Structures are given as C-alpha cells and as structure tokens.
Amino acid sequence: MSSKSRDIEYLIHSMTNLAHHETIGPSIMTKGKGIYVYNQEGKEYIEGIGGLWCTSLGFDENELIEAAIEQMKDLPFYHVANHKSTLPVIGLSEKLVEIAPNNLSKVFYTCSGSEANDTQIKLLWYYNNAKGLTKKKKILSRYNSYHGSSIGSGSLTSIPTFEDDFDLPIIPVRYVTCPHYYRNSNKGETETEFTGRLISELEELIIREDPDTIAAFVAEPIMSAGGVIIPPKDYYTRLQAILRKYDIRLIVDEVITGFGRTGNMWGSQTFGINGDSLTCGKALSSAYMPIGAVLIDDEMYQIMLEQSKKIGLFSHGFTFGGHPTSAAVALKTLQLMEERKIIEHVREVSVYFNERLKKLEEHPLVGEARGTGLIGAIELVKDKKSREPFNSISKVGKYVIKKCEDYGLIARNLIGDTIALCPPLIIKEDEINETFDRLLKALNDTELWIKKENIL
Question: What is the rounded CA–CA span in Å between residue 236 and residue 9?
C-alpha cells in the first residue's frame, strides 16, 4: 500500500475537508530548507504560511535541532508538578518575563495555544471566585476571531466551521463586531466613525449583560484565521478605555503575532495594547517542538497564591506542560532571534513585503490587500466597486490555493475568499519577489478560470 493510501486509510486530518481528502489524498512533505519544503516527489514549495503561522526560523535551523538533541541526551522528559523543575524551563521562564510587555511576571506552560487559552478561562474564573466575584464569568470575544479549537478556546473562536455541529460555544461568551473596516463599515462611514460605532456597541453590550458578570475581553492584535484583520488605528486605545471603565480584564492572544511577526517582539507593542495576561505559542519554539504559555500579572498570581494556601494545591496543569526539550528549543529560538537580529530583519524586509502585497489591489480579483510586518492577506471580490464577494459555492479562494501549489507556493484560504501569507521571518527580498510572482500567476489563472466558468 502506498504512503498516500495508508494516509487515507488511517489518519484523520485537521482543518481538512475529509471527504475531498479521500479523493485527492495528501501531499506528503519529506524535507525542509529555509523557507522551502519538499514533497515526496521532490517538488519544491515556498512555505508562504510558515507551516501554520509558526515556523519563524525556517525548516532546517540546525541550532534548534542540536538544542533538542542535547536536552534529550541529558533529560528527555520531566515535569513541573509537585515542586519539580528543570533548568531549561527555568531559563525560558526568566527570558519570557524579561521580554514580556506590560509587567507580566509569571509563566504557566501548556502544549499549544488552544490549551493556553483554555487555561486563561480557568484562571479568570479561579481569580474572580477568590475575590468573591462569583457572577463575573462571561468572556467577550469578536466575530471571526480564532483562539483555538478545544472546547474552551473553541468557544472563544467565532468562525462558523469551528462551531457548526460541535455544540459550541459551551461557556458564557458574547461576541462583538469584527473590526474590519473594509467589510463591516457602513456606506459613507469614516474609519473613525466606524471605530466609534464598534466601541459604542461594546459598551452597550457590557451594560446590557451587566458589567459585574463579565470577566474579560479576549483579542488577537491581528485577527488571523478570521482573515488577517488589521484593526483601525485608534481601535485598541478606545477599547481599553471601555474595559478599564467597567473593570474587565484584557487577554491578549499573541499565539500568531508574538515573537517578531509584526516587526516588534509582540503585537501588543505594535498596536499599543496593555493586556492583563497574554497567550503565546507557535513561533515560541519556531514550531520545532510543541509549546504554549500563559503570562500573567502579579495581581493574578497573588490571588492564585492565596487560593493555593486555602485549597492546598493549584490543581491545573498538563503532563507535557513545561517539557524540558520544548523549553530548551524555545530558549534557543529566543537567543537566535536576538543574535541574528531577526526583528530588525523583519522591519527591513516587511517594507517590501507590504509594497508587493498592496500592489495586488490593482488585480481585477482583489478588493483589499492588508498586512503588517510579515503577515498579510488579499480579499477576493466579484465586484471591486461594490465589494460584492463571490458566491461561496464558486470556491474561488480554494481554486487560487490550488493554482498557488501548482506554481510551488503554499498559502492559506480563509473565510470570505481571503488568501493569507505568513512566511518564515528569515525570508529575503528575492524570496518575497518569488512568493508574490507565484501568487500573481495563480491569480491570473483564476481570473481566466472565472471567465471560462462564467462565475462573474
């Protein structure tokens, strides 16, 4: 039986149309080098989405591999339960607190961003119960947000395919409008007026629900899987003022925007966000090892400390949370970012990345091109003037992705026929050119296909 047949026979794929997969089978990747990956047949692809928004230092960084090997030789696994620890996890915690925004002072480890956002929910409830605020349990999120796919984090997520038939949300979550000016503004509404309307909507919701029942607002600095949405300039300033007014904590989900993606260490720094806690993962280890983390402020930690005295234990955790090999690789990742001035490199090449991205707005199929740092997207539309989207049945975005792969580029098709790019941070200018050249060929082919199929 071939590898493809075995895959279809035994494996369930995430984020995949399972029925379609049984027809086409997998593209089996066997090798990586820099920003490129190679499939079983030897075909080269630019990994334009960085794996799953995560492989920041590319696919063959030997120092990360060596860090994993050395740690595996010394101590392949140990835990951080029952007063135990390891040197890599201590070192990584110290480093994360050193670089953390907003005086966050303690780190809790998980194996993924989803687990980390689940932990955020539990810590909120634990914290408010300890303060006697037993009604303060609701969490505010945004339509089209993505915070994970577990039961808790999937409840914070508001993308239809992540909710349909999963009985989500299962926790008390309330959603507000996605801050996407291009798609959600009213006719004639300025960006400032749009922001004002969203902030008024938020405050009205808080009052209607009762501020004493709302624990937190959770936000990605850039909404990733929901379409790479860049909020208006004063959105976060005005949002935070409302949250402070009603004593509502702000959870910043930096799983995708952390570790240099936006041209700063954190998306919080790029957008002027002062969160009370922070979720991170993915690029923390350049995705070489599974790891996620929650960073909290001292106020929350002191409450946890008192509760631990009262209850006897802080009874939350994961067997592999704080895994020493993952921690060793993550610590080496942060060291390499500093030594190689990765953030400075992102600031330099992202200027050209965003120039090439913005130029795609000239294409007949592209309604909006948007990006910050080395993350960006184009939104495909049927009519550029009216911003009318394609009918979902036409599957235009999926066709673009297929043509991209034909030309050796892996991109991501998001809701609303949005095509996303999030390449490894080590990408060079000539590789940026090649990325956009391949994407442009795919768009041109798609335009011809649309005319042939009379989709317009």
Answer: 47
